[in-house]
Amino acid sequence: MPDTTPRGLTRLAFGGDYNPEQWPESVWQEDVRLMREAGVTMVSVGIFSWALLEPAPGEYDFGWLDRVIDLLHEAGIRVDLGTPTVVPPVWFYRAHPEALPVTADGVRLEFGSRGAICHSNPHYRAAAANITTRLAERYGDHPALAMWHVHNEYGVPVSACYCENCAAHFRRWLHDTYGSVDAVNEAWGTAFWGQRYAALDQINPPRATPTVGNPAQALDYRRFADATMRENFRAERDILHRLSPGVPVTTNFMTALSQCDSVDYWAWGREVDLVTNDHYLITDGRRTHVNLAMAADLTRSVAGGAPWLLLEHSTSGVNWQPRNPAKAPGQMARNSLGHVARGSEGAMFFQWRQSRRGAEKFHSSMLPHGGTDTRVWREVVELGAGLDALTEIRGTRTRADVAMLWDWQSWWAQNLDWRPSEDHDARERADAFYEALYDRHLTVDFAHPEADLSRYPLVVVPALYLMTEAAGNNLKAYVEQGGTLVVSYFSGIVDEHDAVHEGAYPGVLRDALGLTVEEFSPLLQGERVRVSGPDGSELSGDVWTEFLVPRGAETVWTYADGPTAGRPAITRHRLGEGTAWYVSTRLGHEGLDALLGWAAEDARIAPRADLPRDVEVVHRTGEQGSYLFAINHTAADAKVPLETSGTELLTGERAAGRLVVPAGAVRVVRLDG
């Protein structure tokens, strides 16, 4: 069996994508010298190099890659070797133009970017298997090889193709999934609008239609597209396992909810030997460090709580947003160590040397255009030394306090057309609930709705429109056995086929929540409602209200105005040994904090009022001990209480009682005992 950690890597991973093919060979020696100066331990190589490795069909040139890998090996730098299957060469597309993807509107995309792939195309699959085999045969036992990196960011920028190859493949997938056309008709509800099929070969992908198409068909096509990409990953992975035994195989995820919505990472996490992730800050005015923490927690959860690896992020600004500010001094280290605190076994970047040409030439790198006499370079060198000082944390695991349920397939279904309100955004609710938990200084695990939740005192469900009956039973049992559950509106409504659960809303959550919803009553844009609490206080909601009927639940907060004035807004249901809360409107940060404060009391989670806002405190533990990470995102020094004394690893100083974390800095304490 392959290992789950990069082979031969004895320190935390530090480095980035290395693209020596963009530079004359005379630069390579300087690259390696500077990598050693910066403390680089591993680089990713060859991800976009298919056209150089196979310049013509069946003609190969591995000489340059041999020299690069040997040079890195001599310097003690490990190699994450890519299979370059994200960008086939132009000669491949000239021979097989049908391998270019087709949009739902019937437009065939052209060569000239990256990821322009029809994943159902047999010629692409054969060519990808061939180049992967050639690489594995040549480098599978190279002493520099740490791990294999298949493809690049599956699903970005193209996940689904709508060509005739995909249509035939989709029909085969339907046959394998459902067994018969009758089962497909039942699952899709094709009696509606006269869409019934007499045979599977009558079914096409959900291409452009005069008005909204069948939502269950669209949902299944997203599953099919995701499964097809996963088939291609497995094909390459299995070649590498066979020809390069014992070397872990991965592909870089993009779990941040704002950056990739076409991949079911719960399924993908089971296929890779090591979960790796790419994360880039979305600089839209919000607190970017909160989204970073969320992405890291989600990646760790996809890994089943095991250590994972940040395979890409940026040293400073990126180039693909409308506005791309530079990171502030010290922010790169905070970002990097924030991922490490939440389970990453290092911090890798895109890329090592900043490109002079191409679409990403203004994307920051470890070695900027300005060279070594730059702030970014000095911070890179400092970070390399810091990560070296943290070597002993390898293999430890991040300790979580609460769980949040998330399901990519529910998100897909939620985002289909003709829902009660386009203002309701499942991702926005996930962000909002996460931020409220973050501000209560709680570390979050994400979980699939059918996962074992018994170890969590509090489980939050911010937006799960699609929930299976098994998931509903799971949450009911969780509450009955003593858990505290918080559910937000428009959850539990449909099954896995986007069919509304029989009976009153909220479907499979009725029993756990002790209520029914007679009718949704979304608000118009800009409308707000007031919600009154038991002590006379008021909260504000928008976007959504409901005509809610308690059936065992007690009313805790009531609508003070709006279309549902006088009706319950927030309820609490005691069931068995536990408690379930339900909120039927979109609360802002103040309201969510109040709600989660009540729920935390039920869950017996003590408040952490002694920690300042925007100062993260996260624990990693393992056989070698327990480690406290304190990350100060503020402009003032902060004091963090310590449960025991310890040694601060970045400075070597002893700490006891209270740990002083300078403004914008990070401290990591190995706790005694």
SSE map:
Blueprint: E1 13-18, H1 28-38, E2 42-45, H2 50-53, H3 63-74, E3 78-83, H4 90-95, H5 122-139, E4 145-150, H6 164-178, H7 181-188, H8 215-243, E5 249-250, E6 252-253, H9 265-269, E7 276-278, H10 288-302, E8 308-312, H11 331-341, E9 344-349, H12 375-389, E10 397-398, E11 402-405, H13 408-414, H14 426-439, E12 444-447, E13 458-461, H15 469-480, E14 484-488, H16 510-513, E15 515-520, E16 528-532, E17 538-542, E18 546-550, E19 554-559, E20 568-575, E21 578-583, E22 586-587, H17 589-602, E23 615-622, E24 625-632, E25 638-641, E26 646-648, E27 654-655, E28 658-661, E29 666-671
Parallel strand pairs: 1-2, 1-9, 2-3, 3-4, 4-5, 6-7, 7-8, 8-9, 11-12, 11-13, 13-14, 14-21
Antiparallel strand pairs: 10-23, 15-18, 16-17, 16-19, 17-22, 19-20, 20-21, 23-24, 24-29, 25-28, 26-27, 26-29
Helix pairs in contact: 5-8, 11-12, 14-17
